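Hey L., structure's done. Input below.
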Amino acid sequence: MSASPVGDRLIAVVQGALWSVPRAGGTAAALTSADLEPARVAWSPDGSRIAVCAYQGGGFHVWTMAADGSGLRQLTSGPWDDRGVSWSPDGSRIAFSSERGGDPVAGSSYGIWTVDVRSGELAQLTDDADAEDYDPAWHPDGTRLVFVRAGAKGGRTLASVPAGGGEVSVERTVDAGTLVGPAVATDGRVAYVHVGDFAAPFNAASSVLMVDGAAVTDGEDVSPFPPCWTPDGELFYVADGQVKVRRPGTAQSAPEQIPFTASLSLSRPEYRQKRYDFDSLVDREVRGIHLPVLSPDGKSVAFAALNALWVMPIGGRPRKIVQAHASAYVQMPSWAPDGESVLFSCEGDADGSLISVHRHWLGSDRADVLATGGRLHPVLSPDGSRLACHDSTGNLLIRDLATGSEKALVAPLGANGLPGPPSWSPDGKYIAFCDRNRLNLRFREGYNVIRVADTATGQWTAHQPAPHASLSDRGHGGPVWSPDGSAMAFIMESALWVMPVHPNGTPAGDPVRLTDEAADHPSWSGDSGSLLYESSGRLRLIARDGSGRRTVPVPLRYRRCLPSRSDVTRVHVGRLWDGTGETVREDVDIVVRGNRIAAVEPHRARAVAGEKLIDASGSTVIPGLWDSHTHPWQYTYGGRQNSLMLAYGITSNVSLGGFAHEAVRIRESVAAGSMNGPRLFATGELIDGSRVAYSMGRAHRTQDGVRRSLERAVDLDYDFVKTYVRAPTWIMREAVRTAHEELGVLTGSHFLSPGAAVGQDLTSHLQATERAEYGHSLSPTGHAYQDVHEMYAGGDFKIIVTPFIALALLMADPSPAKDPRVTTLMPPWDKAFVQRIAATPLSDAATHALQQDAAVFRKIVADGGTLALGTDAPLTPIGLHLHLGLRALHDSVGLSAAQALRTATSVPAELFGVSDDLGTLEPGKLADLVAIDGNPFQHFDDLIRTSWVMRDGVVHRQDDLVGAFATKSAEQRTADHTDWLTVSRELRREPCCSRHAFDV
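Output:
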């Protein structure tokens, strides 16, 4: 928000647009569309023009426009972000903060810059590699600028620098919290916002407007945006969702409020929803071909599919060499250099718990375990003597197979998932892999770079294929070193590229694109003459020069595994909530024929001949639960992720981001009965802009790259399309078009705005990572205001809530931490995380944060909003957190048991277009139900006591699911000295949302 220097109008940023507001209040007029995406705004000294920091096109830059919104002009450009604007008193220059001038591989901190309004000439005023400088504000005399300087503990310093650059002076420091948005009055007074420290586990304790170190607000929820002085000493700011004015230094006791109205017209999308066939038993082509890799002789392919490992001669039929148990997960195949054996990762190491590296000898079916304790991405050195792999936190390890010794070579550069798999140089001196850098300390995003480590010393270098270019993701997209050492292959802009390299892995020339179709999972033939890659579930071979592309058929089919329609199961239910209302019926039978409910009727004392009986007369039965926001993270969790969901009563699971081919593989494996788990509504990678955070974020900076990724989404039949933090509106619009017109599915993102404006259907959180400095849905202290509530009111634009603060309920009731689903079925890092929270006393801050979340959710429900419940697992404890979220909705929000349960049953079924089949227990619907040892309609906490679930008519008992991981002896557990809480912290650092919820 900024006030005109002549005092007649204000410019405000509301829901992704600039609005002109009369100084006296009244009707606001929109000046910009959603595509500009303004973040900060400032008036020119003469009031004729406006400077704005905006994200249009995919990066933050400085723009100007006339006061009526016309004459839009871009002043800065390039791959760097330019944030925050302040116009010089003489109108000749605009100050901003930027990373520009730095190194896109090594990173660059924010410094203060100016741009000449007429010529566009740039000047850098500050450049301190150990600090982040931002939020510049001109002193009225034009001789210097005041700004925020952030160190390791955040923005706790107000500093100044001469207008021409020079020595930086400290103006003010604070010992706690963060300083935001200084503004300098004509008499030199400095106003700013002081955001208090975040009181774990969630919100900031306060947000206060300050002038020269003294608070001028008391009890107001001040928004973390720069205040604005007028020449006559009025100070405009935003607090409690209102534009307010004060005159600091006068006797004014209460702020003036400027009431205004703004009308935002949004048309909601209409499209034909995807139809699902949950009953078909026809044979289907397997599309979930996962992690294919070409043999050294170029004649065979190893891959994972249907929860098994396969080897297929090119032109022949695949042969199954390993079938994983339904509770396990086989993955990450690689060939030994001699082609005589295949390595892979799967559960089943010496202690029976974590993922280990196995070696299967093709000639004899002999199997060896090469490494245990959570070892991933196994690849043998060219001479076969050493094993390179990652541990669960992404450390690159080298293991000497003869001695069994293991050393950590390098740690990952960033968080948010594993680095890509290692690839050896032909001489064994180097290992190349994909890692994500972090460009600065203010924002976690960076580029997926090629990192090359010396195997003897651990020294490493990092490279980009082109300036500011990112490899597509950190799955199995390369780099893959050619056996002759002359090139690396990788996926960029969703296409296959080859780049010449020197023997030490440094680029020796420009990369060459080989494909114009979507590509993944490249691997070389032993003669370095050809490459295998996967394109939307189909395998292709292509020559190194891009010629001779041909399809490699994979004659592999599967059939959905369902009970026979002649199989009848009668479930005697003590208490039944069918999901249709508030009523709980007693002493009824649910008759299941095959995979569907045939009848719900009063209990029969005598069974019908031929029926299978299940006695749940002491239980409460409800519809199968949904988790509407998860991420398949099997590459570290293995089969535990699916087993945990079933063990907690979840029968339908919605992925809102994961590796595309893996998601299809899991969807098919569960449907075929080769893998335990809830049915998966699948999506692929997070569709992102040029920078990424998560390993499964897909980077794009070109229209062709976006086209390839969205064509792949259609080919792989996504059930949801998600855009992520750095995807600009043009990418979001393309994703909307593909989701609605070609797939008939929902699409969403973190962003209420511009998400609603570009036609998305929902937000995947109330608030999560934003590309701007602060989110616009919640204030730092956890409050939402009218604009947010009205966007969700009525339910046309929907929300999947992920109440992270519900973790605090473990502090109030630590008993779930003793459950065998935690102590045995969860991996040890999640067990440590849960038990640490459960051992923490419930604080006033946590209670207050629960109440704040509850107030927002309560308002959404009261206004008729569509609210479904998700967890963002495995960021939160898988399965368990859904129950904590339901408790929060019931206990804190005040929903009835039935209302709370509908957010995880009928509401998501309706939301995802399958309410004819799922969400309630009625005749004709799929037989998805949960048996609970207790009565959650009298004691809601009983809900967590799920003893068994039925999905598609098949029963999965908690005891069996837990028992599959119960082989680790007490002696082995005692001998395990790993600090699993530290592992948990590493896995959860730099999360997308609510980082303070995981500070344990």
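The longest helix spans residues 844-862. The two ends are 37 Å apart (CA to CA).

-- N.
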